[in-house]
Design a protein that fits this description.
The protein is an alpha/beta fold. It has a single domain, classed as 2-Layer Sandwich (Transcription Regulator spoIIAA), CATH 3.30.750.24. The protein has 4 helices and 5 strands. It has a 5-stranded mixed beta sheet with strand order 1-2-3-4-5. A hairpin with a 5-residue loop joins strand 1 and strand 2. Helix 1 runs parallel beside helix 2. The radius of gyration is 13 Å and the shape is globular.
Length: about 120
């Protein structure tokens, strides 16, 4: 896991997003967001698959951030992963971005086209 030191907090887990790591990320991101006052970015480009554990971890992070009055920005480059999140209507719970740059800029997310 890597946390960026930009003005907007960026957390980039590396590898599988399991329940243990999800709980750690939720606590960490909630703490950073409550101190910083900005909506953090969860960069999932280095997460190999969005399985059930990963989805649960993301939802746990979202709940923690919402309790701190913050919202989550998620970076997903893979069109299939983006489609999975949209099919679960999670794009209504958090914003999904195709690049880190667009998430940091807070651009309005665009739908990724399937390959």
């Amino acid at each position: 896991m890597r946390t960026n030191s930009t003005a907007i907090p960026v957390t980039a887990p590396n590898g599988r997003l399991d329940p243990f790591l999800g709980a750690r990320l939720a606590r960490s991101m909630r703490g950073v967001a409550s101190r910083d006052g900005s909506d953090p970015v969860l960069d999932l480009r280095a997460v190999p698959a969005l399985d059930n554990d990963a989805i649960r971890a993301i939802i746990k992070i979202v709940r923690g951030l919402h309790s701190a009055g913050r919202h989550l920005r998620v970076v997903v480059e893979d069109a299939a992963a983006h489609a999975l999140l949209r099919s679960m209507a999670l794009d209504r719970v958090f914003r999904i971005y195709p690049t880190l740059e667009s998430a940091l800029a807070g651009d309005r997310p665009r739908q990724l086209l399937s390959a």
